[in-house]
Amino acid sequence: MTTARKVASILLETKAVKLSPSKPFQWSSGWKSPIYCDNRITLSDVESRTFIKKALSKLIKRAFPEAEGIAGVATAGIAQGALVADYLKLPFAYVRPKPKEHGMGNQIEGRIEQGQKVVVLEDLISTGGSSLKAVEALRAAGVEVIGMVAIFTYGFKLADDNFDEYGVQLKTLSNYKFLIDEAVNQNYVAESDLESLKKWRQNPAKWEG
Questions:
Q1: Among 91, 83, 156, 88, CA closest to 123
Q2: How far apart are CA 182 and CA 27, in angstroms?
Q3: Residue 76 contacts by C-beta under 8 Å, 6 or more apart in sequence?
Q4: Which residue among 46, 163, 172, 209 is the one 20 to 30 A from 63 at the CA level?
């Protein structure tokens, strides 16, 4: 089993991902969606957590061998980022959505030096908006962002365009295609739902179920 398929299987088995084409979820953006993903649930399962930690670490070593630090995106990327940084024996920091309104007013928590080559770690990529705000903050602090890794991506064209615009190379463990294939293999969804699931990914803003 490939890493992408194994991760998709983990997300389904731990119920980190829920698929419901007939009764869609509603995202905060207002989009209706047949899928809800909360990868933080995998942190509660030791075997799954360990597999994902090691898989992310291998991905970073292969794709970004020059990495000198890991920066997690708050909040979902913090725990997994810390686990990966510890496994790779690299410094760790995390990036808030915006600076704190009290204390030191930090947006980046932890110590990252100017010019340091850093990989940003995120749990999930939808449009890429919040992830790329973290990249902006790091670059503003003089950090060299050499890439981003994530557990899962929906594979929206909008996200691809956003990452291209920022010049950030994105690598993920798994994606929507592998997830749907594995969901069918596990009888998690019926083959009759496939067309609706495919249409959602092509145009999520206008999908009605």
A1: 83
A2: 23
A3: 39, 40, 122, 123, 124
A4: 46
CA distance linking residue 209 with residue 23, whole number of Å = 8
pLDDT along the chain (209 residues), means of 10: 95 95 89 94 98 98 98 96 98 94 83 96 95 97 98 95 98 97 91 90 87
Compute the Cα dihedral for 10, 14, 19, 24 and give only its sign: negative
Contacts of residues 26-35 at CB distance under 8 Å and 24 or more positions apart, as own/partner, are 31/204, 31/205, 31/207, 32/207, 32/208, 32/209, 33/200, 33/204, 33/207, 34/193, 34/196, 34/197, 34/200, 34/207, 34/209, 35/154, 35/176, 35/179, 35/197, 35/200
Distance CA 81, CA 208 (A): 35
